[in-house]
Amino acid sequence: MRRKTFPLRIECLESRMPLAGNVTAGLNRGGLVINGDNGDNSVTVTPGPAGQYVVAGAAGTTINGQASQTFSGAVRGLAVQLRGGSDSLTLKPGTYLGSVVITDLAGSNSVNVAGANINGALIITAASPAGNSVNITNSTVLSNLGVYTRQSHLNSR
Length: 157
What we know:
Strand order of the largest sheet: 5-1-2-7-10-13-16
Number of helices: 0
Distance between the termini: 77 Å
Order of helices and strands: EEEEEEEEEEEEEEEEE
């Protein structure tokens, strides 16, 4: 009995992009405003001299379409709204002028503040019922500290 053979074919599939997004950042009335999208975003903020800040993306996240962006001038505060997706925000060591307000409305998220000197209030709101992690270590807050979470883990040292 004769065996039937079938030719092998290879079919190319469309390319896949990582599930990260583009975060927008800009100055508004003396404050640095960072807005996420509904993708999984990873953002790092590093303060520099004289109110300068570097906002960088990781794991495929872009900042205004670029890997990172530097904002100069008398930045007097920081407002971050990460929106949907599973997001990660890290505030690197240094001095943050004015208050820092972080809001994340959906997803399982991580906020890390390490070695920060915040010359104002630090307010973190993680409204999602999913597991969130807020870690604050070796940091100084000049004014009020408020952490509002639902079903989340808070670690402060």
